[in-house]
Amino acid sequence: MSTYVVQELEDTENTARHEKMLLLIGKYSITVLAASDESDALAQRYVVEGALSPNSLMDANHIAIVSVNALDKIISLNFRHIVRSSTIKITGSLNILLGYNVVEINSPM
Question: Using CA atoms, how far apart are residues 48 and 82, in angstroms rounded to an integer?
């Protein structure tokens, strides 16, 4: 999980959900991956190439951090920006072009 996920949790107004998620992160020793100059540049490239809109930069950062850290998958319920055919195709193509692995993007269903 990226630091951006933690940031989104911090921004939630649902205090009970926030606390529950933070407890799960600790309970299961989930690794939190930090952003880097490399992942920031890749996220920007996703936006420039139309994989995600400029308003979805945080979502682009989620995918970029996974790509830079050579992880295999993203599981998301974000059907508006991440789990979309165009996002999957464009980020996959860019990753191949730039020497990263293609990240499999799915919903938990």
Answer: 16
Tell me the whole-structure pTM to 2 decimals. Answer: 0.83
Q: What is the rounded CA–CA span in Å between residue 22 and residue 14?
A: 12
What are residue 49's phi and psi, to 5 degrees? -85, 0
Q: Is 99 left (phi over 0), alpha (psi -120 to 50) or beta?
A: left
Quick count: other Cβ atoms within 10 Å of Cβ 109? 6
- For residues 96 and 109, what is the distance between their CA atoms, to the nearest angstrom? 26
pLDDT in tens, 52-107: 999 999 999 999 999 999 999 998 888 888 999 999 999 999 999 999 999 999 99
